[in-house]
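Annex B, item 7. Sequence and structure tokens for protein A, then protein B.
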Amino acid sequence: MRFQNDFDEIAKAKLPALVAASRLSEISQTIVASAPSFAAARTQITRDAVADQLSQELAALQRSVRTLEDGAADKRQVVAMQRVLNELVASLKGSTGWCASASTPTSATRTC
């Protein structure tokens, strides 16, 4: 019975956090890969397309951080990740021609 309880704890508490951490890593890599495209965009249409993609990725990143926050992750690390994410969103909002609502994870649309 003890092993069953241990497996249940892993499945219910730790596994979602591990999946969220993996997803967070994937999304972070995608965002880093997208940044040069945004910087190199020569037209407003291209910037808008890249900005839309970044906005969706940032919203997904925010959802992953929330999953970590709700799970078994170290709360201090989650708070630190949230702070860095907020700084990233603020920095991108300050970029010419782009603003996002990624700080509100339920919306992946652009607003100004």
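Protein B:
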Amino acid sequence: MPPLTFRNTFSHSASSAKITAGITLSVWIFIFCCFGVRAVYRDHQSLVATVGRLQNAPKSTCPSCPTCPSCSTVRQVPAHLEILLAGSEANGQSLTLGNPYNPTEKDPSMFSLGAFNTKNDGDLATGQTSARMYFDQFIGKSAGSSGDWQQQTASDEIGFPVEYWCCGFLGNRIVNPGETWNWPEFWGSWPRELPVGKPVTVKIKFFYGKKKPAVASFTIRKKGSPD
């Protein structure tokens, strides 16, 4: 019996496997070309659109400085009132006041604080403004004082038994950026029992639409010559 041979069978099987692998690879290449390229293109277009939106979006304002190279806008400073008295910052002043009508009076009965000024050194306008002034001694309001200052029935500030309030000449003024606004002059009456030269603490608050008012404290003394 002649010997068996499988050479042709194996050769045929190998050829079939190569053909099948080639067809499979061709199918995958076709699928990638039809769907994969489109997906990659869509992802690329989406990325380009996102980058464009980020480049064209307004830049946020730098929170730590008014201007900086990374900011496209200038940060606006909120309204802020500076309290002035006799042309200078009121806080910390010490004034000796006599009777303007009788400067040589030994024990003056009245005095004038002069006009307060409030300056808005912010970039935005204030809300409506009003003022409250407190004394730690029983300072009255003299007949020469403007009717714009009114005395409260009871003070809301501990340690200051006397309180006056005022809404300005025209009432509830709005102070624009950079504007300085004058307030009515306050004329007070000294208590007779108050010694000449004894310091009296004054606190004044200006409310202007923010949660906390602008506050200044200073001292006044009765000018005169003790007996």
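Comment on protein B: The first helix runs from residue 7 to 56.
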